[in-house]
Structure prediction request, 346 residues.
Amino acid sequence: MASHRRPKQPSRARVTVLTTAAAAAVALGTQAANAAPSEKPTKDEVKAKVDKLYEQAEHATEKYNGAKEKQGKLQKEISTIQDDVARGQEELNELREGLGSMASAQYRSGGIDPSVQLFLSSDPDDYLDKASTLDQLSAQQVDALKKIQDKQRELAQQRAEAGEKLKDLSATREELGKKKKEVQGKLAEAQELLNTLTAEEKAALAAEEERASRSAAERVELGNSVPASGRAAAAFSAAQSKLGTPYVYGATGPSAFDCSGLTSWAYAQAGVSIPRTSEAQANYGTRIYSQSDLQVGDLVFFFNDLHHVGLYAGNGQVIHAPRPGTVVRYESFGTMGGPFMWGVRV
Prediction:
């Protein structure tokens, strides 16, 4: 006999879950169908993003330059201190040997007291504080012992100073590595963006850059501005001789430069040593706040954080190493990409 039992129905909760999931799937499918494909950035948009990345890379480059300069100074200072410590140790050994010779001579003559053995201790400070010991020492021995004490204190201070500088050097090397990685990351990101362009777009950008990078053979109207001084004229002339030289981060010439590398190299050719980084150069000489007061060869600084520097060329023009992918060239104040902050007369 056939069964008349009704089939088991799904629970209300299960039906609700299945219905909700189905509705969500339909909604997502509809959105996917209606969504517009992601638009590829235009050449100008890519250029704007790349320029921003290059600006960030240049900022990091100046920090990298500062850490590298500090590392060099610390290494020289540590080397000098270590040399001083080595010489000081030799002097200390000689003083101890001299004191030992005096003690031996006294012993042979029968005039040495057992307490004179204290002279040969590596830590004579304790004994100088004891009057009973001093009463048994000759004036010459006391003088020798004090010299040993002074030399020991000096060596201890120098070793402590070297230890602190070594810690500073370690931290500076760590910062140097971070900044180098940051620069390389920004440059790699910029290259990835450029790789999204078509061959025609890349060619168009290259043509724009070619027009912007004027060669040394091209005449730029610089006006009749007079150099600030003989050394400023010499520095400007040196910079002019490097028109067309490529920008490379961290480079100080003569075959490649970054912005502060060019200005420090140019002034070095004029016999003037200026700081390595743009931020330090901005605080080196006499500030000139008005563009109308600038003279040829003055250092000129751009962006609020002073991460870019060039040499004033006259008639509102700057000679500088702009950024990665460019060469040393003339450029007007209005196309520098950031506000003019001030000039510095060296």
In short: The first strand starts at residue 286 and ends at 288. The first helix runs from residue 12 to 34.
